[in-house]
Write a structure and sequence with these properties.
Layout lengths: L31 H13 L3 H35 L11 H19 L2 H4 L6 H8 L3 H11 L3 H14 L4 H10 L17 H14 L3 H25 L12 H23 L1 E2 L2 E2 L3 H15 L3 H14 L4 H11 L18 E2 L2 E2 L2 H17 L17 E4 L1 H4 L4 E5 L4 H14 L1 E2 L14 E7 H9 L5 H22 L6 E12 L10 E6 L4 E2 L5 E2 L10 E6 L5 E2 L2 E4 L7 E5 L6 E5 L6 E4 L1 E3 L1 E10 L7 H11 L4 H12 L4
Protein name: procollagen-proline 3-dioxygenase
Family: Belongs to the leprecan family.
EC number: 1.14.11.7
Length: 646
């Protein structure tokens, strides 16, 4: 059991105590936990040389233990995945448990091969947490200071602050260190930083200096190191779990799986820290730097690959879409240049998808591109739909090509769709992770049809929710076609479930807009003109919003004749099952009033007459439901059927 001793916080003005400089001999067979305890003891007894020795050795041994543990888990995971199954038929999930047993035996063997590391380690979660939270550095910086090693003292304090940025005492100590002779704040380092951190920083610095080859070398290495560190972080999560009781077999597995999954979800956030500075887009930003550096070095194929990789994360990013269009017009660029850079995989609610899973997804897309014309809509049994009726037309809405309809969804269906958002919506989805893309007074969360599809595909969400999502938005499409008498095929181009929530500290008398006045297929300028050219979504022809609730204050949809909302033509109050439909051009400038309290949820849908911009996720979603496809089936059966795809 780890002895956790209260740290006697001492400000540095009181640290000029007599120091016992006599060092003790370290027992090399001691594990990191024992060494940690001896380091604390030495600190409390003012034996600062011993304090440094014990903590340095404890950190060294924990690092070796952690690296080897991660290595064993990853090696055994890959070996088990590549092994041939003993039985050709998967009965009662036998294939899963066979892999689990193989992986377990492999880990036991791996640990037996390194007795010097594992035999003397009894690392319980409490002890592991001390090292993961960088607690040794809370003592170490003071011990370094007392032994006159002021530069290491400053770096140790900084290392601790990266993990505990709000610790006032350590902040004060670091500030004091910065005034000492021999301390150069530009050379302070984070002792626990992963390789990708420094590589990324050097790459970003090279970008500022326009040293394009250095940008490429550093960012490529940083990218590789990041992906490896992310794998190791996830492997670290697969440790023991004290359930606190004795559940049955299946609940026991489910509880431990959920525990590990929650830990793995935090890896993206953990790795997004550059020495304490949080970056939501750290991984995709590598590709942003790389695409420009490749272009400057005249490597157009790699530039296009980097653009395609970045767009996997943020498919609506106007800057990168504009870059893609620019590159595609260059005479030497071919269509096959826009293939994703090797090793990249897209975002998913549970973190970043595994590379293998994304390959399966891509292959299924390729299959659909061949059979797309043969797909038929599903006739799935749903609860009876009340009569849809038009409640407002151009006359009431004071404009042209716009209408409001009611009864497109029942209260039960609205609640079901909102439930998807509550469980899986992502902050800033569709806006590069910016949690408040339109106003700082609100939180913006969203989930695309593609994400819902992934959740069903990986069995994190029941397929009935995807079925409902498709059915309701299809009803929206039919209503738009009927009202506007559209004779051509009207294609979905994008579908987005969005919730806007008032922040707890936002004033109730707000006059700002939740979403500024805009048009959906042209860029609205201050002088009132609307330019229908990239990066605007010029292919959009019709727009619609299906509302899901009314238990909030504010949030009215408005049509305006100007860009400032000084001349509001009409307003639509959201409620479950109500939709507003309109043409996407400058004739229908619109926005959303401030959400003053609660959360406003709606499904926004955009349509196009151009089949080139049809949403492929929808075709894949119908295919998944119709064939009852999931991850395990793709892995064991369908992949072989797709092997002859392009």
């Amino acid at each position: 059991m780890v002895k956790i001793t209260c740290v006697h916080y001492i400000t540095l003005v009181c640290l000029f105590l007599s120091t016992n400089i006599q060092g003790s001999q370290i027992n090399e067979t001691d594990n990191c936990v024992n060494l940690y305890e001896q380091g604390v003891e030495a600190y409390l007894e003012n034996r600062y040389v011993d304090c440094v020795s014990y903590f340095e050795k404890a950190l060294e041994k924990y690092g070796i233990y952690k690296k080897k543990l991660q290595s064993c888990r990853l090696k055994c995971k890959y070996d088990a995945e590549l092994s041939e199954p003993l039985y050709p038929v998967d009965i009662e999930n036998l294939a899963f448990y066979e892999k689990a047993v193989k992986q377990t035996l492999c880990i036991i063997k791996c640990q037996d091969e390194h007795p010097e590391i594992f035999d003397n380690f009894h690392m319980n979660p409490e002890a592991q947490q001390l090292f993961e939270e960088k607690k040794p550095y809370e003592y170490l910086h003071i011990c370094y200071y007392q032994t006159k090693d002021v530069m290491r003292a400053a770096s140790s304090a900084f290392t601790y602050l990266v993990e505990h940025p709000d610790d006032k005492i350590t902040q004060s100590n670091l500030k004091y260190y910065s005034t000492l002779e021999g301390v150069n704040m530009k050379e302070i380092e984070n002792f626990e930083a992963s390789d990708y951190v420094y590589l990324y920083v050097h790459g970003a610095d090279a970008y500022e200096r326009k040293e394009w080859q250095n940008v490429i070398e550093n960012m490529e290495e940083s990218l590789s190191a990041y992906l490896q560190t992310e794998e190791e972080c996830r492997a670290q999560c697969e440790g023991p779990f004290d359930q606190g009781w004795y559940p049955d077999f299946i609940p026991s597995i489910s509880n431990h799986f959920t525990f590990c999954l929650k830990c793995k979800q935090k890896c993206k956030e953990k790795l997004g820290s550059l020495n304490g500075e949080k970056h939501d887009d750290l991984l995709p930003s590598h590709y942003h730097y790389l695409q420009y550096a490749y272009f400057k070095m005249k490597d157009l194929q790699k530039a296009c690959q980097a653009v395609a990789s970045y767009l996997l994360f943020y498919p609506d990013d106007v800057t990168m879409l504009s870059n893609m269009k620019f590159y595609s017009r260059l005479p030497k660029v071919r269509d096959n240049f826009f293939r994703t850079k090797r090793g990249c995989y897209p975002l998913c609610p549970e973190g970043y998808l595994r590379k293998k899973d994304f390959k399966i997804y891509k292959r299924s897309i390729q299959k659909l591109q061949v059979t797309r014309g043969k797909l038929k809509e599903l006739s799935i049994l749903q609860e009876p739909m009340p009569n849809i009726h038009i409640t407002m037309t151009e006359r009431e809405l004071q404009g042209s090509q716009r209408f409001v309809a009611d009864n497109l969804a029942s209260p039960k269906e609205c609640r079901s769709v909102i439930e998807i958002a509550k469980l899986f919506a992502i902050l800033g989805d569709g806006y590069e992770g910016k949690k408040s893309p339109h106003t700082i007074m609100e939180k913006f969360e969203g989930i695309t049809l593609g994400r819902v599809l992934f959740l069903v595909y990986f069995r994190l969400l029941n397929s009935k929710y995807l079925d409902l999502y498709l059915k309701l938005t299809e009803e929206v499409r039919k209503t738009v076609m009927r009202y506007f008498k559209v004779k051509e095929e009207l294609y979905f181009t994008y579908t987005h479930l969005v919730c806007r929530s008032a922040l707890s500290d936002s004033p109730k008398n707000r006059t700002d807009l939740s979403h500024e006045i805009h048009a959906d297929n042209c860029k609205l300028l201050k002088n009132g003109t609307c330019n229908k050219e990239p990066p605007s979504y010029t292919w959009r022809d019709y727009s619609a919003i299906l509302y899901l609730n009314n238990d909030f204050d504010g949030g009215e949809f408005i049509f305006s004749s100007d860009s400032t909302a000084k001349h509001v033509e009409s307003a639509v109050t959201p409620k479950c099952g109500r939709m507003v439909g309109f043409t996407s051009g400058k004739e229908n400038l619109h926005g959303v009033k401030a959400v003053k309290e609660g959360a406003r949820c709606a499904v926004a849908v955009w349509f196009t007459l151009d089949p080139k911009y049809a949403d492929e996720d929808r075709a894949l979603a119908y295919y998944v439901i119709e064939n009852d496809i999931n991850y395990h089936q793709f892995s064991s059966v369908n992949v072989s059927n797709l092997k002859n795809g392009p």
